[in-house]
Amino acid sequence: MSQENMIKFECTECKRVNYFSSKNKKLLKERLQLKKYCKHCKKHTLHKETK
Asked: Domains (ranges, CATH) in the chain?
């Protein structure tokens, strides 16, 4: 993955960065929100894209 398209996902409950992904920033302007498993909270929580 190229660094330009890399995004980080942060848990909304514990505020830790758990996941990395990529997206096409030309097509998707808004920030992504996904329900992912947080190993620190030990449950599925909402993860938001950070800078």
From this structure: 3-50 (2.20.28.120)
